[in-house]
């Protein structure tokens, strides 16, 4: 598969997910080689979302090179979080509906929920950005519901229950066995990007503001002749 | 034909989205040190302020520093809509003890105007050249849209602190360049027109930190102002508006913090603290003919819009210093009646008296 072919399939996967075309799930579940295409959707979605939420990187004053690196990292992080989602939903589906969806298939399909996040960079838009972010999250949730419906042949209420339970599980796991994973994530970010995702933004603002104002004062008073 | 219109609409939407995405990057890039000056790690402000405090006032030191932040039609700090410079000149004449500073471009954190050292400066220069020939050229809307997005950056809770810090820093730099002495506690007033109103309020937060206990207030002239934290960091906020100005009225519609139900918002807190005065100017629009700066349109009593605005603004600027100490924060949010305005000549006189009073207070202090 050439790069052009890959980009074409990537575009097809994104577009068909966005318009809720159930055919895309059939294709992805039947053909294992679509893994790289759906992974691409997750990576692009994660990277784009990071651009939209990049205020945290700018506040931490990361360099342009580290900014690019953080896009790759966020894409990977996003893909991993979707992978965890896939495991949880497959587990719940098996538990509730006695339908066994192979983990690899569940993962491939779950990556498609990242399709709306391709527009994540629009979150950058001042004032409207946060509303756009909410719209994208709802869009992604609707795709997730459709995927659950496709995998387990559930109705909308059942799909909602499964997704709701999945969300509860992620909260529960995040506060317990997920802690070392969060610590590892923070360590990686700190090491490669030099910034923490949970930085105290107010503290940083205050510190940098003081530095910048002091610089200006010194320049101007020196120019005035001491 | 329908396809062409559809294509045009899609093109415009895409163009606006691109502009929107790019809008916060200048201030974020400056903050991160990607563009503009680098962060100075030295810790010199306190030391320099101490040195400055011991010095005698500079020969050109004023009693009151007024910084004007123009509306969204401006290209640079000095290249502002043509109706504004005569107004500012008249205001300066009315306030001999004060200085009206007008070289801050409020739509850039580095005070670099659109025609300055920028990637698109050639395009902006060409559009700027059109303004004297055709003040209603559609191309001028490009400037308006570009600057409008910067107002949105200032009002955005995520970027506001970065953007407003940048503008506050440039206001501070400009104050220093015009002889302001750190630690002198000489009062500072920001006047913001249209989008400049929001930027003035936003930058007041950081300016209050820089100026410490110095009297600081903001006058919005038809400004579109959000429920910004800056309202709590100034002594008083005055909003001068025309009753036919639907643009300034957008502020109370598009910013949820100004909605009546948002009782815990900054806006309503400032209102409860008596920090907000709404001052009606008359049946004025936002820009052009019939606006608050218009010299061609007259009120029924024969006064020009220009004169009415000048009188009311001057009145606001001098009244602050006539008021007994401690009463500045006791002003309840109210609409000041048209009849409360002093005639322009009287105002000029009051300004002189106020300036003398202010000098006296300083000497007493």
Write a short abstract of this structure.
Chain A has 226 residues and is mainly alpha-helical.
General description of the model:
With 226 residues, chain A is mainly α. Chain A has one domain (3-195). Chain A is 76% helix and 0% strand. The model of chain A has no long low-confidence stretch (mean pLDDT 86). Chain B is of the alpha/beta class. Chain B has one domain: 3-Layer(aba) Sandwich (Rossmann fold). In chain B, 46% of the residues lie in helices and 11% in strands. Chain B has helices spanning 2-22, 25-31, 45-54, 84-94, 121-133, 140-155, 160-177, 195-211, 246-249, 251-254, 266-272, 305-322, 344-364; strands spanning 64-69, 98-104, 188-193, 216-221, 236-242, 276-282, 335-336. A 7-stranded parallel beta sheet of chain B has the order 2-1-3-4-5-6-7, with helices on both faces. In chain B, helix 12 (305-322) links the parallel strand 6 and strand 7. In chain B, helix 4 packs parallel to helix 12 (305-322) and helix 6 packs across helix 7 (160-177). Chain B is globular and about 60 Å long. The N and C termini of chain B lie far apart (74 Å). At the A-B interface, helix 4 and helix 10 of A face helix 1, helix 2, helix 3, helix 6 and helix 7 of B.
């Amino acid at each position: 598969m050439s790069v052009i072919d890959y980009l074409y399939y990537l575009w097809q996967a994104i577009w068909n997910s966005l318009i809720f075309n159930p055919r895309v799930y059939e294709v992805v579940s039947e053909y294992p080689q679509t893994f790289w295409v759906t992974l691409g959707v997750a990576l692009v979605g994660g990277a784009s979302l990071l651009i939209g939420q990049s205020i945290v990187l700018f506040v931490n004053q990361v360099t342009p090179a580290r900014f690019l690196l953080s896009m790759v990292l966020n894409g990977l992080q996003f893909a991993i979080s979707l992978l965890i989602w896939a495991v949880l939903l497959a587990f719940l589906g098996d538990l509730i509906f006695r339908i066994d969806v192979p983990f690899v298939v569940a993962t491939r399909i779950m990556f498609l929920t990242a399709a709306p996040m391709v527009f994540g960079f629009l979150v950058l838009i001042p004032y409207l950005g946060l509303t756009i972010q909410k719209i994208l999250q709802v869009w992604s949730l609707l795709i997730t519901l459709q995927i659950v419906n496709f995998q387990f042949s559930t109705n909308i209420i059942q799909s909602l229950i499964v997704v709701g339970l999945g969300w509860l599980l992620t909260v529960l796991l995040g506060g317990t066995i997920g802690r070392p994973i969060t610590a590892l994530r923070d360590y990686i970010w700190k090491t490669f990007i030099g910034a923490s995702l949970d930085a105290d933004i107010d503290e940083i603002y205050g510190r940098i503001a003081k530095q910048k104002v002091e610089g200006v004062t010194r320049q101007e008073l020196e120019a005035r002749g001491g | 034909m329908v396809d062409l219109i559809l294509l045009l609409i899609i093109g415009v939407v895409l163009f606006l989205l691109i502009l929107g995405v790019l809008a916060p990057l200048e201030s974020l890039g400056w903050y991160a040190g990607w563009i503009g000056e680098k962060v100075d790690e030295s810790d010199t402000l306190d030391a320099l302020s101490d040195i400055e405090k011991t010095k005698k006032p500079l020969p050109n030191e004023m009693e009151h520093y007024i910084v004007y932040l123009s509306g969204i039609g401006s290209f640079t700090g000095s290249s502002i809509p043509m109706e504004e410079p005569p107004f500012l000149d008249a205001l300066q004449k009315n306030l001999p003890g004060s200085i009206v500073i007008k070289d801050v471009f409020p739509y850039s954190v580095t005070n670099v105007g659109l025609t300055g050292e920028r990637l698109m400066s050639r395009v902006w220069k060409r559009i700027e050249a059109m303004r004297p020939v055709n003040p209603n050229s559609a191309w001028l809307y490009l400037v308006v849209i570009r600057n409008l997005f910067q107002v949105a950056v200032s009002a955005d809770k995520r970027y506001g602190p970065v953007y407003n810090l940048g503008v506050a820093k440039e206001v501070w730099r400009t104050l220093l360049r015009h002889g302001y002495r750190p630690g002198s506690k000489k009062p500072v007033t920001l006047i913001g027109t249209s989008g400049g109103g929001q930027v003035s309020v936003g930058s007041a937060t950081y300016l209050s930190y820089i100026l410490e206990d110095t009297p600081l207030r903001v006058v919005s002239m038809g400004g579109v102002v959000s429920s910004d934290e800056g309202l709590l960091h100034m002594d008083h906020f005055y909003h001068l508006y025309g009753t036919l100005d639907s643009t300034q009225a957008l502020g109370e519609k598009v910013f949820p913090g100004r909605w009546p139900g948002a009782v815990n918002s900054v806006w309503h807190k400032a209102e409860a603290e008596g920090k907000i005065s709404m001052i009606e100017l008359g049946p004025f629009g936002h820009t052009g003919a019939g606006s608050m700066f218009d010299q061609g349109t007259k009120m029924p009593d024969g006064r020009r819009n220009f004169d009415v605005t000048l009188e009311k603004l001057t009145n606001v600027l001098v009244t602050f210093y006539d008021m007994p100490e401690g009463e500045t924060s006791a002003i309840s949010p109210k609409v000041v009646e048209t009849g409360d305005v002093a005639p322009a000549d009287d105002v000029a006189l009051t300004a002189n008296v106020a300036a003398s009073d202010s000098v006296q207070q300083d000497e007493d202090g």
